[in-house]
Design goal:
Blueprint lengths: L3 H18 L3 E5 L2 H21 L8 E5 L4 H9 L3 E5 L7 E3 L4 E3 L14 E5 L12 E5 L2 H10 L26 H11 L23
Length: 211
């Protein structure tokens, strides 16, 4: 017995996301915060491997806008990064330097994908595609997309039986359910070609104590 039938709708939702955003690959997860965490982990682990092979010094910190959702900072910290704050004005999305991750929680429109990035989307109830809960990571590297798919599902390969899989890489319980994916597909039937960025007001996190 495999999970192929149950998760086929997730595959279909990911394909639709790629068509809409212009991204070569999309990996659906259970929230934007967890999409960011997995993106941080992917870039951190790639950086560490590159360093082992003789690359430059490992990046240990990321730069975030002072005014953003606190979950972004927590995702960075949970992935092992220190957070440096910067007074950045942004709308819809912003780049997280120096690792090429984009928090696009407040943007969802056609052709939005930025090549070379891990662009993280939100489908929370107040967002442009209001599934209720969910997120996704857009990327253009097939190997990175495959790692993200395993990482979101406890290291499991959703295409084969858990009884057949012999190797389980590091993973977390962050997958999108078939029910959420089905609602996402239905909502995308009515998605406009262009959506304006959502407004957002956040407190200045550089003045807060995040322990």
């Amino acid at each position: 017995m495999t999970d192929r039938g149950a998760f086929k709708v997730v595959d279909e939702f990911e394909k639709r996301l790629c068509e809409y955003t212009g991204a070569p690959h999309a990996v659906a997860v259970d929230s934007c915060t967890n999409a960011l965490f997995l993106a941080f982990m992917s870039r951190r682990m790639s950086d560490e491997l590159f360093h082992i092979l003789g690359g430059p010094e490992i990046k240990t910190s990321v730069t975030l806008p002072k005014r953003t959702y606190v979950g972004v900072a927590q995702a960075a910290r949970n992935a092992g990064f220190k957070v440096e704050w910067k007074d950045i004005r942004w709308t819809g999305q912003y780049l997280i330097d120096p690792i090429g991750v984009i928090d696009a929680a407040r943007r969802f429109t056609t052709g939005m994908y930025i090549p070379g990035s891990l662009q993280c989307l939100s489908f929370q109830a107040s967002k442009i595609l209001p599934i209720g809960r969910g997120g996704a990571i857009l990327c253009d590297d097939a190997g990175e997309a495959e790692w993200l798919r395993l990482a979101r599902f406890d290291g499991r390969n959703q295409n084969i039986s858990i009884f057949s899989q012999q190797r389980f890489p590091q993973g977390w319980h962050m997958y999108m359910t078939p029910q959420e994916a089905a609602r996402g597909l239905w909502l995308m039937m009515y998605a406009k070609d262009h959506n304006d960025d959502l407004p957002g007001e956040y407190p200045d996190l550089s003045l807060a104590s995040i322990q």
